[in-house]
Amino acid sequence: MEEERKESQKKEVNQELTESPKFDFMREQIKERPLNKKKLLRRTVLTAAMAVLFGLVACLTVLVLEPVFSNWLYPEEPAENIELPPETEEILPEDMVLDDEELEQEKEREEEPERTEAETETAQAQADMREQIDELALYRGIYSRLQDLGAEVSHALVTVTVVTSDRDWFDNMYESRGQTTGVIVANNNREYLILANAEPFKGEEAIHVTFYDGSQAQAEVKMTNPTVGLAALAVDNKAVKETTAEGIRPAKLGSSNYSSLTGSPVIALGSPSGVSGSVIYGVATSSGNLLHTVDSKYKLITTDICGSSDATGVLVNLEGEVIGIIDQSYNDAQMKNVISALGISELRGTIENLSNAVSEAYLGIYGTDVTQEANETLQVPYGAYVTEIEMDSPAMLVGIQSGDVIVSLNGRMVGNYEEYIEALRNSTPGSTVNVTVMRQNQEEYKAMSFPVELGELN
Questions:
Q1: Mean pLDDT by 10 residues, the chain (458 residues)
Q2: Which CATH number applies to 265-346?
C-alpha cells in the first residue's frame, strides 16, 4: 500500500510540473537547420575529383614502378640477334660428281685411325648428305631424260588447223578454225603422211600444218577411216622448208601388246591438256579393254593422266616409240578427262591402208574369239564367232547369222577373230569371196558356204 501511495504522489507532481506555465519551454519543438544544397554539391564534386586523382596517381605509380620491381625480382635475359641461314646455292649435276682429288681425299679419310664420337657424327652427316644429293641427282636425271625424249618425239608431231566457212542467219560469211594433233608416220619420198583425228575434216576448205619449228605448209586429206575416226593427211615435200625437213623424224611405232604395258611409264604428247605442245607424264593403268567395231577390234589403253576431254596426240613409251593414238571418244562419263588411247598394234593395218590410199573391204559383222572352254564344253569350233550382224550389210544379205562361226574366208583358214580381220583386210572391195561358216544344227555344227560380194568401208 505504501508503494502505491508513493507512485500516486509522483504522478501528481509530474502533472503539476507539466501544466505549470513556468515550464512551457520544455514543450517547444526543436527546428532543423536548413540544408545548403550548393555547398553540399561542391563538397561532393570535390570528393569525387580527389578520388579520381588519387586513382590516376595510384595507376601511374603501379605502371611506372611495376617493371622496376619485376626486373629487380625476376631479371630477364637479353634478346639474341636473329641471323638467317645463308641462301643455299643450286647444286648442278656436275657438282655432284667427285673429281680425282676429292676421291683421293675420301680414300685418305677412310684410312685414317678411329675417329672420335664427334668426328663420327660429322662423317655420318656428310654421308647422309651425299646420299640425298645422289637421290636428287637421280630424280633430276630421270626428268631430264623424259624432257629430252619428249623433245625428240615432238619432231614427229604437227598441229593441224582446219579452216571452214559458213553463213550465219543474216547470210553473212564467217570462218571457223579447229585444231587437232597429227603424227608423221611416213615419208614416201613425195609427201609426208600424217595421221590425225578425222572429225575436224568435215566440210574443210583449207588445212594448215604447223611443224615443230613453227613453219607451216598446206595439207590435203588422203583418206579417212570412219570406223576408228582417223584420217591420213598428205603434205607435199616441196612445200616444206629445207631446214624444217632436216629436223623432221617420222614417229617410231612401237607395240601395245607386250604384257608389261600396264603399270609402265608413258608420256602424253601433242595436246593432252587441250593446249598444243603440252606434255604430261603418267602410267598406263590398263591395256586389256577391247573395242569391238564392225569387222575389227581395237585395244583401248587407259592411263592415270588427267587431261582435257578434247585431248589429242600420242602416247609414247620410254623408248620414244608411239604405243597409242589418244582418243577420248570412248571414255565413259566418270572418266571423261582420263587420257585414253587406241593401241598402235591394232592400228598398224589401218595406218598402212590410209597411208597408201587403199580402201578396206567391208563384210559387216561384229565378232570375237571362241574360247577354249566353249570349244571343250559346248563343242563350238574355233574361228571368228559372229556376235552381231550390221543391218543391210553384205553378210546380212547373203544370210550369215549371229552365232555362226567363220572358219574360212576366200580360201584362207580362220582360227580366231584376229585372223578374220587380217584375211578381210587383204581382200579387195567389190570382189566376190567365199565365206565358210559353221552353224549349229540341233546337237552339232555343220559347214555352210556363202559367196559374198564385199562392200567398201566408208
A1: 63 57 50 61 76 76 68 56 39 48 58 58 64 70 85 93 68 66 91 89 80 92 89 92 91 87 93 91 90 91 92 93 92 88 91 89 94 91 95 94 94 93 92 94 90 90
A2: 2.40.10.10
Residue labelled with grid coordinates 629436223: 247
Neighbours of 59 (CB within 10 A): 10
Query: Alpha-carbon distance 243 to 261, whole Å?
Result: 37
- CATH hierarchy code of domain 361-456: 2.30.42.10
Burial 170-184 (b: 16+ CB within 10 A, else e): eeeeeeeeebbbbbb
What is this structure's pTM? Answer: 0.68
Number of H helices, E strands in the chain: 9, 20
Q: Where are the domains of the chain?
A: 265-346, 361-456
**If DSSP codes are grouped into helix, strand and coil, which group holds residue 256?**
coil
Cα separation, 401 vs 389, in Å, equals: 7
CA 287, CA 259: separation in Å to the nearest integer?
Answer: 9
Query: What one-character-per-residue DSSP string does 32-83 give?
Result: PPPP-HHHHHHHHHHHHHHHHHHHHHHHHHHHHHHHHHHHHHSPPPPPPPP-
- E strand intervals along 237-347: 265-271, 278-293, 296-306, 312-316, 322-326, 338-343
Q: How many CA atoms lie within 13 A of 3 on its CB side?
A: 0
**Do 265-346 and 361-456 have matching folds?**
no
